[in-house]
Model the fold of this input.
Amino acid sequence: MTDLRTPIDLRPPRFGLLFSSGRSTGQSDATVYTRTLALAEEAQALGLDDLWVTEHHFSRTTPAPSALALAAFLLGRCPRIRVGTAVTLLPLHPPVHVAEQAALLDQLSGGRFTLGVGRGAPTTAYEVFARDRERPDLGDCLDRIRCAWRSGSRPGGAAHPADRVTPEPLTSGGPPLYVAAGSPETITVAGARGLPIMMLFDKTPEAKAEMVALHARAAAAAGRVAHGHDHAFSLLVHVTDSPRRAQELMFDRARRLVRAHTPSMTDGGPERNEEAVRRTAERLLAHQAVGDVDTCARRLLRHIRTSGCGRVLCQVEAADDDAMTVRRLRRLATEVLPRVRRALARNTEDVAPADAGADDAGRRRSARGVS
Done:
């Protein structure tokens, strides 16, 4: 019987902000980007560890066509925080070109860039950008990126001038490289290369632990270190004192998820679609860090402890006004994360604040808008 237990990682976790770059009805592109920049600067001021940006093409609800371009801008705009892509869609870009851009960002930022890559899902972007070439092999793409950061030598072959990047990365061996993984195949590809994986918010803590265990088996089979990889996962984190508001936020998220995966919201009839929304919302409410401060802290702690992952990508954006999004970010940084860090440092399941006065002070700062 396979042992799925994950060794406890004693390193303190890193908490970052993952931008959804979502646009609500009636919002302009400028509004979305203004919110993104404001949240990035707020996250830096609040002491978060990372910023993460996404890549989506031809989406009216998510105007984020270049993770690398946005990452470059944020690295210059926010000089005291690390920035990563979650993710750059490898099938849409020549891998050596991705390696070149990542090396440039690594140099210009003083080593503050992280490259997250993934396959993505077949969409219109595949038809537009990859129409004239076969879908590349993920393992080969990863190998070419890493070789370009080193000697330019392809695995088992001689150096190839076109594979050498200029400039060379500032970070020895290249910036950290993460692989977004949802399937056993992708996890195995990453594990065999000793690369950490990045998991989406829809995975339960137990599912994350199983994925990490599969990665460990693949790494060991390839003769690599099985454990100690700094895996990452994303999670919805919405701090609200109202259970009703938590339900509203998750039902709204569920409707968007069902709509994104259903060609027509009328397929199967309204009753069937509403049932799908209800089931999705219930799963979100059961596993995401949504609710009061105590609930959010306990959920975060459970995901970290069960999975053994060291990086958390927190998604605070939702379908309401930008002021509420900023308030959620502040409460995450000043009320939730301190509890989680204390519990991890003490190796305890207790996420209660050290003292009520400290927690009250955090709430007062949040209410005044003080970082």
